[in-house]
Amino acid sequence: MSGNPLPCPCGRGSGYETCCGSLHQGAAAANAEALMRSRYSAYVLHLEPYLLSTWHASTRPPHLGFDDEPELKWLALQVKRHETSGDSAIVEFVARYRQGERGQRLHEVSRFVREAGRWYYVDGQFVG
Ligand SMILES: [Zn+2]
Q: What is the distance in A from the centroid of ligand 1 to the CA of 51?
């Protein structure tokens, strides 16, 4: 019983259930871009446990401050580059969000590593 699938926050054409939703339910990301997209969607949906569980242990914060940023609203994601080399990868993206009245743009190159078949976010550098 399903009508139109809920669109995925990451912006891909397929619905949430078959896109980032399956990763949020525990499926392993096929590559770093898929993990990055699922983490963006998790920010949209405030899935703090998912974000922490996909953060590499060496850089993972103790918690995320969703409650401290009530006015931040993510609007759109654009993946610009995805390069994999063995068990490490980078994903360059632009994410747009609104905080209060102001539209903002986050341009970042994120680093990922794969351990035991699972990709993890390590850290990111702002671009520009
Ligand atoms: Zn998605």
A: 14
